[in-house]
Design brief:
Layout lengths: L1 H13 L2 E6 L5 H10 L11 E2 L8 E5 L2 E2 L3 H10 L5 E5 L1 H5 L9 E3 L9 E3 L6 H14 L20
Parallel strand pairs: 1-2, 1-3, 3-5, 5-7
Antiparallel strand pairs: 4-6
Bound molecules: iron/sulfur cluster.
């Protein structure tokens, strides 16, 4: 059955379906994620499709720190996703809490609530960094277990 597992892994890498969730972001990271999904950056060329329900998604892309108001919803969305599932934290806030760290209403980064597979820093994270992080996560799936991924491209300069 080894060939079957190889086929499943190949299919998973070639067509990951994602869902995007804002856990308390200022909206800038969300705009960069949307930009990555548009034809200009064309993330679909990697087979990545945006889905409207966690039940159809392989990858949960989160932006922003986790607020106390949103944490239960984040856990509910994560639990609704089928296994194997992966979480990508986009932006410094999602990675660590960022500028909101220590606020009375903020739990911290995404990994304060659910496990994270890839961290993409930046304020906001640029579409190139988001694509780089997602592709590295997918590449790491060829191994037995995805390691925590941090892309090399972390520049936060203005978009071209
Ligand atoms: S990392 Fe920066 S741009 Fe992204 S949600 Fe936080 S403050 Fe906003």
């Amino acid at each position: 059955m080894k060939w079957l597992q190889k086929l499943i892994t190949w299919a998973r890498i070639k067509s990951p379906w994602i869902i995007h969730f804002n856990t308390g972001a200022c909206n800038a990271c969300d705009i960069e994620i949307v930009a990555a999904l548009t034809p200009r950056y064309d993330i679909e060329r990697f087979g990545i499709l945006l889905k409207g329900t966690p039940r159809h998604a392989d990858v949960l892309v989160c932006s922003g720190p986790v607020t106390r108001q949103i944490q239960d919803r984040l856990v509910r969305i994560y639990e609704q996703m089928p296994e194997p599932k992966f979480v990508v934290a986009v932006g410094t806030c999602a990675c660590s809490g960022g500028v909101f760290k220590g606020c009375y209403n903020v739990k911290g980064g995404i990994d304060a609530v659910i496990p994270v597979s890839a961290y993409i820093p930046g304020c906001p994270a640029r579409p190139e960094a988001i694509i780089d992080g997602v592709v590295k996560l997918l590449t790491s799936l060829q191994g037995a277990k995805p390691a925590a991924v941090v892309p090399e491209t972390t520049a936060t300069a203005e978009s071209p």
